[in-house]
Amino acid sequence: MECITFLGFALDFFRDFSARYPQFHLDFWLVFGFIGQVMFTMRFIVQWIASEKKKESVIPVSFWFLSLAGGLIVLFYAIHRMDPVFILAYLPGNFIYLRNLYFIYKKKKVSPNLVQ
């Protein structure tokens, strides 16, 4: 029930914001871009929680999945907007995230006993 209340509040907020600022259009791409940015930001929270649990700096596999998913979504949003700054900011990182996931799963395949 709280989720529905929050969703209603969010929709009302964006409607009011759109009425005050006509250049702001709440559409699929804007929501899509926000979702990507939230996913990209969540990776730091996941990393922080994992590090606090172990009392040392660790990077869980979910960090790389959130980085990749959020980075790709924001990249697609930037391409749709034709924004070269954000395209160049998010394009190279996705290759790094994929490469790190490749290393993680390659290591697990070679030595399945070494689970992080």
Q: How many strands, what sense, and barrel or not for the largest sheet?
A: none
Supply the number of helical segments.
Answer: 4
Helix-strand makeup class: mainly alpha
Span between N and C termini? 37 Å
Give the low-pLDDT segments: none
Helix content: over 70%
Q: How many structural domains in the coordinates?
A: 1
How would you describe the shape?
extended
Mean pLDDT comes to 88
Question: Taking Cα atoms only, what radius of gyration do you get, to the nearest Å?
Answer: 18 Å
Number of extended strands: 0
User: How do the SSEs run, as a string of H and E?
Assistant: HHHH
**What fraction of residues sit in β-strands?**
under 5%
Overview of this protein structure:
The chain has one domain. Helix 2 (28-54) packs antiparallel against helix 3 (61-81) and helix 3 packs antiparallel against helix 4. The chain has 116 residues and is mostly helical. 81% of the residues lie in helices and 0% in strands. The mean pLDDT is 88. The protein has helices at 2-20, 28-54, 61-81, 84-110. It is extended, with a radius of gyration of 18 Å.
